[in-house]
């Protein structure tokens, strides 16, 4: 029996209406699903549309941004039909998000305990006493050796790794169906990074939670993801399983990302690099959005953007090389 997806995104378009009548198509026709107990990674350089996709799901797009088309279904409910008040009930309860920099996501004037308890009281309607017990239990679960003391501490009193653990404790306090982790370990050193990602993997198993992992690090993808979406220019350019992405890469952009990874097996004097930069979202090339940087570019790539084609079992790619 096939599982119903926790999250199903179809035809999502999020545009930013700038001065001088410019429209930045930050997310432009994105489709994907995330299943219970699965980690789906969205990969790409800065400016490819990864974070705007996650903020669109959370309904946290501010002016001049606007979701102009598509559906975002959490199980059977389209989140785009929800009022602001209804979304406030869903955020933190059914969907939670771990932000890239916990210092900006945690409130500096409230204790860690206060902030976790507030979420529990709001969504689970527990008494203060029970909410406090639950918060201590969560801090223990995410690896705080002195959870009771941390309850009374402020964000600035904790290290970066401990702040991120506190954020995770807060995000799982209501056992969400979907956890969005936006570069959850970027600001941390490598050993702490591994601890945080191991913790997320353990929680996924324990709670059968779906995780949407936003990252630019293919090493993290290899270790922790089940499926991968590669984004470029606000669109998905490749979608497949984590094994396929490393063994049978198809899109020239994905190949470029993989070639820029250091390897212990290859004798390399210099890492590969993708020439040029991601074009601004208000000024994409007319045809394929990767055409200005692609080593395999053909004449037709300059005139029309290719469709995302299914080229094998669970493997899609947006490239004329595979038509």
From TrEMBL:
Pfam families: ABC_tran, oligo_HPY. It is found in: Cell membrane. It comes from Virgibacillus byunsanensis. Residues 7-258 form the ABC transporter domain. Keywords: ATP-binding, Cell membrane, Membrane, Nucleotide-binding, Transport. Signal peptide: none annotated. The keyword tRNA processing does not apply. It is a peripheral membrane protein. This is ABC transporter ATP-binding protein. GO terms for molecular function: ATP binding. Belongs to the ABC transporter superfamily.
């Amino acid at each position: 029996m096939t599982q119903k997806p926790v999250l199903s995104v179809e035809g999502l378009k999020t545009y930013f209406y700038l001065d001088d009548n410019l429209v930045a198509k930050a997310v432009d026709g994105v489709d994907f699903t995330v299943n219970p107990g699965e980690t789906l990674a969205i990969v790409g350089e800065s400016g490819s549309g990864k974070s705007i996709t996650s903020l669109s799901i959370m309904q946290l797009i501010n002016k001049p941004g606007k979701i102009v088309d598509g559906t975002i279904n959490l199980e059977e409910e389209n989140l785009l039909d929800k009022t602001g008040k209804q979304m406030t009930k869903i955020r933190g309860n059914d969907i939670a998000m771990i932000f890239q920099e916990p210092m900006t996501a945690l409130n500096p004037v409230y204790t860690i305990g206060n902030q976790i308890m507030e979420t529990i009281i709001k969504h689970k309607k527990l008494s203060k006493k029970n909410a406090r017990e639950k918060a201590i239990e969560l801090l223990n679960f995410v690896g705080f050796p002195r959870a009771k003391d941390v309850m009374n501490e402020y964000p600035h009193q904790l290290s970066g790794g401990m702040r991120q653990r506190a954020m995770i404790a807060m995000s799982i306090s209501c056992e969400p169906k979907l956890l969005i982790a936006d570069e959850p370990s970027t600001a941390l050193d490598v050993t702490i990074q591994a601890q945080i990602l191991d913790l997320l993997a353990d929680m996924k198993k324990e709670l059968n939670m779906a995780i949407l992992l936003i990252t630019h690090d293919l090493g993290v993808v290899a270790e922790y993801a089940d499926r991968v979406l590669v984004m470029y220019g606000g669109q998905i350019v490749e979608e497949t399983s984590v094994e396929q992405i490393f063994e049978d890469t198809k899109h020239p952009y994905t190949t470029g990302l993989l070639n820029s990874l250091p390897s212990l097996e290859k004798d390399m004097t210099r890492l590969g690099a993708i020439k040029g930069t991601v074009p601004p979202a208000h000024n994409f090339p007319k045809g394929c959005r990767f055409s200005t940087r692609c080593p395999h570019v053909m004449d037709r790539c300059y005139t029309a953007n290719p469709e995302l084609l299914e080229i094998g079992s669970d493997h899609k790619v947006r490239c004329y090389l595979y038509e």
